Amino acid sequence: MADGLYERIFELAKRRGFLYPSFEPYGGAAGFYDYGPLGAQLKAGIENLFRRIFVVEEGCAEISCPAVTVEEVFVASGHVAKFDDPVVRCQNCRSPFRADHLIEEAGYKGNAALLKNEEIDALAKKLGVKCKNCGGPFGAAYRQNLMFKTEIGPGSGKVGYLRPETAQGIFVDYPYLYRYFREQLPFGVCQIGRAYRNEISPRQGVLRLREFNQMEVEVFIDPQKLTHAKFARVQGTRLRFLPKASKEIVEMTIGDAVAKGVVANEALAYYLVLVDRLLTQAGIDPKRLRFRQHEDDEKAHYARDTWDAEFQSERFGWVECVGIADRSAYDLTQHAKLSGTPMRAVRRYETPQKREVVQVRSVPAKLGPLFKKEAGAVTAALLALPADRAEAAAAAKEVEVIVDGRKVTVPRAAYDVVRETVTVAGDDYVPNVIEPSFGVDRILYAVLEHSYVETTKEGEAYTVLRLPLAMAPMQVGVFPLMPKDGLDAVALDLLHKLQAAGLRALYDESGAIGRRYARMDEVGTPYCVTVDYDSLKDQSATVRERDSTKQERVRFTDLVDHLRRRFSPFRDS
Q1: Which band of pLDDT confidence, cut at 50, 70 and 90, is reported for residue 572?
Q2: Sign of CA dihedral 513, 518, 523, 528
Q3: In Å, how far are 41, 206, 542 from 551, measured between CA atoms?
Q4: Residue 397 carries which DSSP code?
């Protein structure tokens, strides 16, 4: 076969209904793919595995937020100011490219994304970087923000963006979620959904998309308690690590990794184990999976420590599919600062304590006429001012608060500064966040590549997708040996019974039985059921298992239970 493994996988994916290039009749558009019938089901299998681990077993809450997000959210998060990539454009064919990728491919050993534009220009000239499409020279490097910008409401002038990650919706909802979890930390919140990045030059199939699928978990923890209640259960789990500044993969237990300081704390380490479990259960080969720690100059601006789960690809080498970050308290602190909404938790004392506090309280007779319907919101914002600002407000002529994302100025006559002794239940603090962030599309491609097996059968090339049972888009193929003499009617009856029992089953009567087995093997179907002429006598069918090709006779009356038992540990939650 002349084509590489990547080409053969995508040929199968397109032909059999896993992935289609989007908008193909109109010439397509880079960075977009459609999921076909089997691809959509495989994607759902990965998402359901995520839900089973994080929502069912770990007790995380799942929420769903809008994809269109107001600008203020991304000003607070830093995306408006910092979420950009360096770009160069060919002066001949006008093709754009990621400048840092070109520099690194040409031999630069550092993190080229951190270089200034003029440094990129100098290196491109020194390294002789040319356009990959036409060989032409590049113009000067510049930065491009990767968010898709839009206007919310025609003519409103209110700026919005398609979210580049699903995390920010969770952070903005933190005050509601804190109450939902009865003000007890730690707790986790997850979201599955689409995210959007206007990538400069997406040229790696589903590995770099402009519209993609994420599964993210935000675990809110007390920064003074970085242990995990379940860590003892997983400390013997062995993972493959590539620590920062290391040249070799080291395999060790997660317990040893924490004890030796390879992983900073139990809380972060526990989620590395959960990520490993999800990826291997989805079908990624453990021998082609590693956890690589980010270098200091590589980490996101908010991260204290980050590990990437990377799978090994035949074409692309090591590819990130999950990032596990200690985001510190950055996000909640930033949203509290810009919105004026407290994003805090309480570390409760065993015995409540007496404490002198300073508060800014409204003078209703003055505040009401000034702010009318907003008086209640302004009053709440005044009460939420921290002690240092409350002290400063006493000597000031006015104080500024945030109400619904707007700055509001309250004159001195409309508020009082009050000092009093109160009973305090605990100390306020801003929670830290541990975030496992999964790229569904990359995981799906990794599962396809690691499950893809080529062999020969009777002198012909033969392909099998050895997908785990939980991931198989189609669970059972049902065939009549011949579509006549009543065999087809019996096979269809069995098909309907299997479908009614909740199994994903497909009927196929086209071609020789061997060809039908081959079609099912090629898409990873674990079991095939064949009705033959003996079936009319003994009321039994032949059940064939994909990986071993072993066959056994099973009575019609036992068939549903026989197959359902095999899938029951893996059934969707």
Answers
A1: very low
A2: positive
A3: 26, 37, 6
A4: S
Q: Are 151 and 159 in contact (CB under 8 A)?
A: yes
Residue 149 confidence (pLDDT) above 90: yes
CA 331, 56, 40: angle at the middle one, nearest 5?
85
Contact 273, 255 (CB under 8 A): no
How far apart are alpha carbons 141 and 129 in whole angstroms? 12
Which region, left, alpha or beta, applies to residue 405 given φ > 0 means left and ψ of -120 to 50 means alpha? left
Rounded to whole angstroms, how far apart are CA atoms 406 and 374? 12
Residue 1 has pLDDT above 60, yes or no: no
Would you state the structure tokens that stand for residue 112, as one six-digit string?
């080229």
d(CA 318, CA 563): 37
Which tokens is 436 given? 């496992």
CA distances from 471 to 9, 41, 216, 283, 564 (A): 17, 8, 20, 8, 15
Q: Which two tokens stand for residue 216?
A: 């993210």
Cβ density class 69-80: b for 16+ within 10 Å, e for less: bebbbbebbebb
Quote the CA–CA distance of 178 and 187 in Å, as a whole number. 8
Strands 432-439 and 415-429: unpaired
Question: What are the residues whose beta carbons fall under 8 Å from the beta carbon of 442, sequence distance 6 or more?
Answer: 206, 207, 311, 319, 320, 321
DSSP bridge partners of 551: 544
- pLDDT tens per residue, range 388-436: 899 999 999 999 999 877 899 999 999 999 999 988 888 899 999 999 9
User: What is the phi/psi pair of residue 88, to 5°?
Assistant: -125, 150
Tell me the C-alpha distance between 468 and 391, whole Å. 62
Pairing mode of beta strands 187-196, 61-62 = parallel
Cα 30 to Cα 197: distance, rounded to the nearest angstrom: 12
- pLDDT tens digits for 178-210? 999 999 999 999 999 999 999 998 888 899 999
Question: Is the peptide bond prior to 480 cis by the omega test (within 30 degrees of 0)?
Answer: no
CA distance 70 to 62: 22
Helix (H, G, I), strand (E, B) or coil at 117: helix
3-state secondary structure string across 281-311? HHCCCHHHEEEEECCCCCCCCCCCEEEEEEE
User: What token pair was written down for 526?
Assistant: 């674990």
**Cα 420-424-426 angle, rounded to 5 deg:** 145
Complete domains list, the chain, with CATH: 41-82+166-344+430-459 (3.30.930.10), 84-145 (3.30.40.230), 348-428 (no CATH), 474-570 (3.40.50.800)
- The dihedrals phi and psi of 530, each to the nearest 5 degrees, come to -120, 130
Listed residue (19, 12, 10) closest to 39, CA to CA: 19
With beta carbons less than 8 A apart as the criterion, state whether 465 and 452 touch: yes
| pTM > 0.70 | yes
In three-state secondary structure terms, 509 is coil
- SS3 for 208-230 is CCCEEEEEEEEEEECCCCCCCCC
Cβ atoms 476, 445 nearer than 8 A: no
Q: Are 251 and 243 in contact (CB under 8 A)?
A: no
